[in-house]
Amino acid sequence: MADQDQFTIGVEEEFLLVDAESRRLRPWVEELLPHAQRALGGEDGQVEREFKLSQVETGTAVCRTLDELSKEISRLRATVGVAAEQAGARVAAAGTHPFSHWREEGGQVTPKESYLGLERDYQRLAREKIICGCYVHVGIPDPEAAIQVMNRVRPWLPAILALSVNSPFWLGEDTGYASYRTEIWRRWPTAGTPEPFSSRREYDQLVDVLLATGSIDDPARVHWDVRPSPRFPTLEFRVTDVCLTVDDAVAVAGLVRGLVQTCHGEAARGGPVPYPRVELLRMTTWRAARYGLEGDLVDVARQRSVPAAEMLDTLLGFIRPALEENDEWEVVSGLVHQVVQRGTGAARQRRAFERARRIEDVVDFVIASTSPARA
Which long-range contacts (CB under 8 A, 24 or more apart) does 305-308 make? Predict the structure, then answer.
């Protein structure tokens, strides 16, 4: 692949489908898809089914600038929003539904053999898995370079999660977590942050062992917080909740790409690979899910607690040269500080509930925030 594909960017977003009247999850993806596909003129793979019939996934085209990406995310959110309304539903960008139960109609698994196989294997873990994430892909055509970058981004993933948190409610209650989606997902054996790899060969050997032992049925079942994509020549970041707004998603994507470029440069210069204790990474990821930007994270390099907003400023400082090289420093730093000032998606969901203490109002707020025309 040509060098022009280095550091390209794309985003996949998962959304919930809800009834406009009851605000409950509804299994309406099959009704939505024909409308969305017609609106997109048959563009392949940009709107797809997800694990549950009450979910839909979008995937942007390959972009080279954050401005392109913002327009793509806006276009796809608008398209699925209109298609959902034509099918009698609404689209909501939240990591969890605020009150629908996974046992209800909206919890049906999409009747696709790979998904049904997951339900057979994982049982209740799969049945409870009505969660939505945002997956950022950054182009790295060299498979070896992708591994070396993956090794170096690990310490920064909790800060990126803290920025994205958008799932405080579950089964009608405030969970006390800013990203309860993270806690649901991290119970799976294929989730979490991987240890560093010495080479792409070592990575591939591990995937082969997982396949040979029946631990996974496809390389795509390696669901780590960051991984080489099994479909594209990209490094894929999977740590974040689906973002409440387009701006929030662009902030996350801008941080991710700046981090990839910075770590790619460090690897090219032969810089050392950071190797924080996995116990510290697990703890700071938990803190990010628990508190979002309203608590402390663990600075694993200096082995001390710091406010999450300070950790984000440290991350911005680390990647500033890459952002300036792309002429994106003002955009990314501005969007990140906008989230810090007005609150994460989780904080904004909680404020929507506090206004009248009606959980249905949270769903209405999320629906309105999801659409680029309404946010």
Answer: 308/159, 308/162
